[in-house]
Specification:
The chain has one domain: 2-Layer Sandwich (Translation Initiation Factor IF3). The chain is α/β, with parallel strands linked by helices and 104 residues long. It is elongated and about 55 Å long. Helix content is 19%, strand content 19%. The chain has two helices and five strands.
Length: 104
């Protein structure tokens, strides 16, 4: 398997893939490798009233358990979209966040 940055770019027998020069080899024999989990209905809450912490435990916990993308279907628009942008900019730890915003 070839990983470039944080993306899996090839999954083939080593005899049929060109390994980039200088690539680090990691022995994963006996282990399981899987892509990130997508949570299509996760309420990430925890912050409100326009006050956002530098670290959000629900975001960090999701990431720690393998969730790399989350859809929060009804969170406060100000909070969820701001957190999504902070994660995207690398200023907050968490999975990629998508939402429909405040429930109507």
């Amino acid at each position: 398997m070839i990983v470039d940055g944080n993306r899996i770019t090839a999954v083939r027998p080593s005899s049929s893939v060109a390994v980039p020069a200088g690539a680090q080899s990691i022995d994963v024999k006996g282990r399981t490798i899987m892509p990130g989990i997508v949570d299509v209905h996760g309420h990430l809450g925890g912050e409100s009233s326009g006050l956002l912490a530098q670290m959000s435990w629900p975001l960090a916990a999701n990431l720690a358990f393998g969730v790399t993308t989350s859809h929060d279907p009804s969170n406060d628009s100000e909070t969820v979209f701001t957190n999504a942008e902070l994660v995207r900019a690398g200023l907050k730890i968490g999975p990629r966040v998508f939402s429909t915003g405040t429930v109507l």
